[in-house]
Design goal:
By secondary structure, this protein is of the alpha+beta class. The chain is 28% helix and 22% strand. Strands 3, 6, 7, 8, 9, 10, 11 and 12 form an eight-stranded antiparallel beta sheet that branches.
C-alpha cells in the first residue's frame, strides 16, 4: 500500500494556529522594543539641547538662553534694517529653513539641527505643516516651524521695566536647584485652527508652559508637554543641570479626545498635578 507524505487538514490548521499565536505574542514585543529605541533616541536629542544650552551659558557668562530676543546682527525681512526676532531654535529669516534653524540662540551650537528638531516617536501631520505654510506669520518667512521640543518659558527671566520688549535672562548660578528646573521637554500644541482639542507639533510659539484647562475641559492654546512616549503617559525632559530623564505626565485635561489627553504637565507628584515646582525658579 502506498502512502503520500502530506499534512492532513487538521495538522495544517494546528500549524497555522501556532504561527498566529507566535505572531500575536511577538508583534507587541517588537513594537515595544522599537518604541524603546525611539524614546532613547529622543532622550539623546533632548540631552544634546541641554548641552548646547550650556555652551551658550559658557559664552554668555552664565546667562541662560532667552526663549526669544532681538538680534541686531540679523535683519528682519519684514522691517529691513531692523534686527531679526531670534528664538532659541530659529530666527526670522525668509526662505532658508536650515539657515533659520542654525541661527537660533541654542541651535547654533548643534550639528544637523533640522534633524535634531524632530522626535523619532512623533510625526508632524501633513495638515499641520500645510497650516504653517499658509498662516500669515509663517508664510511671510516661508518657514513652517516643525519643532517637537519646547523651552521652559518660565526660565526666560523678567521684563526690564525701562524696556518691556527686552528680557533679562536668569543666570545659572542663581537657580536654587538646577536638577529640578525644566529646561526642555517633548512639546505639542492644541490646534484651534484645524481640530479643536487635537494636538500637533507645528511650533508657532517660542516657549513651553505648564498645561492649562478651561471649565469645559478644552485644551487652552499654547505649547505644553506632549506625552508621546509609552502609550502617551511619559515625556522626555532635560533639566537645567544638563541631565535628561523620562517623566510621567499629569493629564491636565478632562477632554475625551485622546490627542488632547496626551497633552499634560510635569509635576513632582503626578497624582495631583497642582505644583509648578519644576517650572518656576526665581
Amino acid at each position: 500500500m502506498r502512502r503520500d507524505n502530506a499534512f492532513t487538514l487538521i495538522e495544517l490548521l494546528v500549524v497555522i494556529g501556532i504561527i498566529a499565536l507566535l505572531v500575536g505574542i511577538l508583534l507587541p514585543v517588537l513594537g515595544s522594543a522599537r518604541e524603546n529605541a525611539r524614546s532613547m533616541q529622543c532622550l539623546s536629542r533632548i540631552r544634546q539641547l541641554a548641552q548646547a544650552s550650556y555652551m551658550y551659558i559658557n559664552d554668555y557668562d552664565g546667562a541662560l538662553p532667552p526663549h526669544n530676543t532681538i538680534d541686531p546682527k540679523l535683519e528682519d525681512p519684514l522691517a529691513p534694517g531692523a534686527g531679526a526676532n531670534l528664538a532659541w531654535c530659529w530666527a526670522q529669516i525668509a526662505g532658508d529653513l536650515e539657515f533659520a534653524f542654525q541661527n537660533g540662540s541654542v541651535s547654533r551650537y548643534l550639528q544637523d539641527v533640522t534633524v535634531m528638531a524632530g522626535c523619532p516617536s512623533w510625526e508632524t501631520p501633513a495638515d499641520a505643516i500645510d497650516w504653517g505654510k499658509t498662516t500669515p506669520f509663517f508664510s511671510a518667512f516661508a518657514l513652517p516651524m516643525v519643532v517637537h521640543y519646547g523651552y521652559n518659558g518660565r526660565m526666560m527671566g523678567v521684563q526690564r521695566p525701562s524696556d518691556p520688549a527686552n528680557w533679562v535672562p536668569y543666570r545659572i548660578e542663581n537657580l536654587a536647584t538646577p536638577s529640578k528646573a525644566i529646561l526642555f521637554a517633548d512639546s505639542g500644541k492644541p490646534s484651534t485652527d484645524l481640530d479643536p482639542g487635537a494636538d500637533f507639533a507645528v511650533w508657532p510659539e517660542w516657549e513651553l508652559q505648564p498645561a492649562a484647562d478651561d471649565d469645559l475641559g478644552r485644551v487652552l492654546a499654547g505649547n505644553t508637554v506632549h506625552g508621546r512616549h509609552y502609550g502617551g503617559e511619559r515625556a522626555n525632559v532635560s533639566w537645567a543641570d544638563g541631565h535628561a530623564s523620562t517623566q510621567e505626565i499629569t493629564e491636565a485635561f478632562s477632554s475625551t479626545n485622546q490627542a488632547a489627553l496626551d497633552l499634560g504637565t510635569l509635576d513632582p507628584d503626578p497624582s495631583d498635578g497642582a505644583s509648578n515646582e519644576w517650572w518656576d525658579h526665581q
